[in-house]
Input
Amino acid sequence: MKTQTKVFLSILSTLVLMLVSVLGAFASTPAWRAAAGNAVLAKNDGLPQAAACTNMQISNPALWFATDKKGNVYPDKIIKQYPTGTSVIASGFEYNCIPKNTTIGVVYYYGGFNTEPVFSDSKKESPENKSGVFWWYIGYEDGSPLPEGDWQVEWYINKKLASKGEITVGGGKKEDIKPLPTEEEQPTEEATEEPTEEKVAEEEPSGVEDIWDFGEEEKQPAAETVTVQGKVIDGKTKKPIAGALFVVLNPGVGMQEWADKDFAEEDIYTGAKTDTRGQFTCPKELERNVTYTVAVAAKGYQLIVAEDFVIDEQQEDPVNLTIKMYK
Amino acid sequence: MSEQPMVNRQRAAWWQSAILAVVGVLVFVGIVIGLESAFQPTLSGTALLVVGVLLALVPAALWLIFFYVQDRLEPEPKKEVFKIFLVGLALAGAIGIPVTDQLFRVSDWLYRSFGSLALGSIFVVGAIETFLIYVAVRLFIYDTDEFDERSDGMVYGTAAGLGYATALNIQFILASGGAALGSAEVTVAEVALAHAAFAGVLGYFLGRAKLERERILWLPLGFLLATLLNGLFTILRSRLETGDIIMGSVTAALPTVSGLFLAGALALIVAVVVALLIQRDIARTQAQGRRAAVDAKVGDRQSNFATIALFVVLIIVGIIGWLSITGSVTTFEVAGFKGVYPDHYGVATREGDVFRVADVLGSGAEFAIQTIELQAGEGTQQVVAALAVQRGSDFAAYKVLESKEVTLNGKPALWQRFAYVDPMTLLKTLPRLVEGEDYIVVDGNRAVIITLLTAPETLPDVEPSFQQFVERLTF
Output
């Protein structure tokens, strides 16, 4: 390999590492889907406008926007709570303009600012002389509901904390939670009546399934799903087995059927790999009283297949499993 | 007729002693488990390893002493018995364990299916272990004057088998970093008793081959029986100990002992049956007026060659099966890409991939094909940079560990090895270290990136499969 290439790679790696470390454990995981977006506001009197942008100002506290399962964000619908079953949340802020060389960083927390970040990322944003709204939505890759509780966000502009906010996910259904009226929908604007739920639905893009319309999911409360976690150990030595795979197949898919389909990933409902302590947590919750096929595999150990894995009402949430494997 | 009471006494003594020895080993294991749970010793590091290794020797020693005591008519020199024990141990450590673990990598594929379990247990592990025990006795004691009784075959065979078992047990203790002593002792005793049984069967056939004029196929028959017993024991034990998924956290539980009881029963049965056979042989010889001990040079060369030939046949079958299990591939053709991937991998193509397969129930390794459109003047360096930015953003501590220019199927390519930390966000598990390799090939106005992702400890295992995946890929 050429020296120039090595130097280039070294510098590039160093820069990436510096950026990652300075922004503070900014790292996402394949379990997340997330994306940034922005929109120019049609009218915004809240923040000063700049002809040539040099000083970026953003709203603080951070805003939270209505979302749908597909990751569509409705920046005109600012909310104060997400309903039970929400799978995508989006925080953002209003800005006056975006100067050159602006990097926007976001850090999401679950359970408090003093906890480990659950998601973080950064993005270099193109210069913009108009005011607008910037957001960054997050949700699980598999579209499963986010844990209920308080979520926090921090916004960094060029590595400096510029805005933060908090919101609650859960504790109510769509009837209880309505988007706040935006400026366009204030009585002083063209809309003269309070926005109703029906109006909100009308304004949303057609064909989009959003969190305000749960359909069938509303009939299945979140309590019907449980987190599955556990520990995989050697049945004889009792020592934890690292790197063991815990795989749950989609309901109705049996082991033989899965093997016949060449162990296709599309048949996997959820799965996890044990850490060095033999522990695992499934990223997606399992439904109670649904029969799953579960397979546990580890190098050098016999495969465990349970075709009738059911979690009934008597099992607490989360369900803790102890899995004993043998050579 | 005057010899009959002595034979009966000896037969009774074998019964009692064999039961006593098995019970002794079981009681010893029970004592270790009891002491561990009562005192919960906080041994760690070297102390734990030393105690573990010492405890690994006890069941073998108990069983060996039992057999040695039985050879009371003309006791074998302790030095010779211990020598064969050490030879068995050395052959296992120097040849047996490296060949089964490193060359055949049995643990990678043994439990993939019942067929692979049967093939690996009998034709690979069983054949190799039995052959090395055979070699220990045949080359180091069989042709000497010390081997002059039928029961000597059993004594020396058992010594070699227990030596082999001790090597396995020491490896087990070292590999598990000094496992919980009580639980470990169950495995140690099981391995010792089981190998004593296999080797005892082989020893009986060796004893008769040496001291009676048997047919050429007598010794190969004994070899085959011992090999089958070895393999069948593994299969049967795996049917007894199949693994459990238990709802709830199990903090304290007795170790699983079904395998130990199976091994104990097997050892007991083999010891008693072989002892009875030996007594019967002696009685028959005496009834026919022949001497029990005959010329020490009777053991014939042809029978030895036949045994070696049988081993070669068994191991060839094992190799063919092994290659068939580990080398079988599935072909694919996606978006102009044609190639093969290991049979036990599953398709796991995701958004942004051209194609991806994953060893879902094995190493967890993933092979992926992705493409990136290139602008005019862009080359592999731009792809490297793009990958660094993407992975640096998505994961923690991404770094390229090694990089070089290579040729892939006649095309210039850039190869790089990298690692990053997957933080496993929101999951109650430790962050995961991921290691991988990229082959980056510029193909017209696009770059083709062929990537391997796996855990660092499994990288050496999956690299050969990935190489095959890369080399047989055409586009």
